[in-house]
Amino acid sequence: MTGDVWVAAIGKIVLVIGVAGCVTLLLRLIRWPGGRPCASLWGAAIAGVLLGPGVFGSLVPSAYERAMLGGHAERERLQTLDAEHLTQREALASSGVSSVALAELDTQHERRREPMAEALYRAVSDERAAWAQLAAMLAGLMAVIGGAATGRRRQVSGHAAGAGSVVAGLLAGLLAGLAVAAVWVWLTAASRGLALAAGGAIASGSVVASVPMRWIAQPGRGRSALVLLTGMLLVATAMVVAGLALERGPAAAVWGLVLPGLYAVGAGVGRGLSSEVTRLVRRIGRLAVLWVAVPAVAGSLVAWLDPALLVGWGLALLVVVAFSAGDLHMLGAWLGWKAGGSAGERQSMALRSLEALGRGAAITQCAWGVVLVASDACEPTAPAGAMVLALILVGAIAFELALDWARPAARMMDDGGWIRFEG
Questions:
Q1: SS3 sequence, the chain?
Q2: Mean pLDDT lowest for which of 74-78, 229-233, 259-263, 419-423?
Q3: Measured between alpha carbons, how far is 2 from 324 in angstroms, rounded to an integer?
Q4: Phi and psi dihedrals of 57, rounded to 5?
Q5: Choice between 222 and 152, residue whose per-residue pLDDT is larger
Q6: Which letter does DSSP use for residue 312 in this model?
Q7: Can you tell me the distance from the alpha carbon of 13 to that of 239, in angstroms, rounded to the nearest whole number?
Q8: Which of 106, 153, 350, 381 is deepest in the core (most CB within 10 A)?
Q9: Across the chain, what does the average pLDDT equal?
């Protein structure tokens, strides 16, 4: 890819971040429910809709093609060729030539048009690939910040994280991820590799758990919550790597290691930081994640989507699964803590799992979506790829919006109001 392609991709990212920032600021001013992360995700989603084919592309097609699609020079050459052909054909038809002559003219035009159309396709694909890779870089930067923000963490929940938290994290990721993958294969004709990778994105985990973006209740602040999210991240990584390997080969599978790898690098750096520097990293990291990384990641995902591709009853059921993913995460966590957790880990299990998910699981889910596009395993302009991205986005936004409303229910469950978890 040439330098011009990268410059154009940077321009798209900056535009998305700018529009998303304006919308997010407006949402914060009107006290949008869900707090800062929810406002940031919604702002990015609205910006993506405004800049995508459904709004910008419908209202001002030529400007949309120039600003968001790319391949402007190639498109102009192709349009000029088509216009010249139409003029020549009309002139010949009016002169009374035979249909054989018109057919020969059409054949010659198609021969000249084919390489130009291929050049346009390559130009548009290159710009979208550069855009996706830049968004993935920002997702990776978010992972580095999240890792560095862990610092030298101290135990704050009153009990250490044991084997139960590890099992809880693995089960939480597997239940949600495998359920999505299974439903995806059942409902669509998509490949198993893409289904597995999509399930891994829903398994999620969090690479920004230590970045303070919202108020978290006490049960979700301890080491066991962090271990839970780490276990989910490991499951997500394994599923995404396996899915990418099946879909695009071993080279593409490396993309699945970007988020956990950079998170580990950041965590290694964070262990050597003083407490004052760690606090500074968290404050700056919060601004970078909410006002740069999330808008670039989530806004790009929405901007790539064509609403015309999101049709059918299969999509409706996939959306239901996306809404239910948080419940599956919580069920897996409860089973893990119930089966092998210590006495401390068995306290407030529903609320702890809910609050743990509120520490960036939805944001990380969107980051996985960008990784799928950057690896070329998920094509946003294809129906299957569009539904994968819609599944990821709907699940992330729905969870962030419902988190505050779900807390009373989680407390009721822990108190035995619905299900007596104590025994």
A1: CCHHHHHHHHHHHHHHHHHHHHHHHHHHHCCCCCHHHHHHHHHHHHHHHHHCCCCHHHHCHHHHHHHHHCCHHHHHHHHHHHHHHHHHHHHHHHCCCCHHHHHHHHHHHHHHHHHHHHHHHHHHHHHHHHHHHHHHHHHHHHHHHHHHCCCCCCCCCCCCCCHHHHHHHHHHHHHHHHHHHHHHHHHCCCCHHHHHHHHHHHHCCCCCCCCCCCCCCHHHCCHHHHHHHHHHHHHHHHHHHHHHHHHHCHHHHHHHHHHHHHHHHHHHHHCCCCHHHHHHHHHHHHHHHHHHHHHHHHHHHHHHCCHHHCCCHHHHHHHHHHHHHHHHHHHHHHHHHHHHCCCCCCCCHHHHHHHHHCCCHHHHHHHHHHHHHHCCCCCCCCHHHHHHHHHHHHHHHHHHHHHHHHHHHHHHHHCCCCCCCCC
A2: 419-423
A3: 43
A4: -65, -30
A5: 222
A6: S
A7: 28
A8: 350
A9: 87
225 CB-near residues (< 8 Å, 6+ apart): 157, 209, 219, 352, 353, 355, 356, 359
Banded pLDDT at 419 (limits 50, 70, 90): very low
Type of residue at 37: P
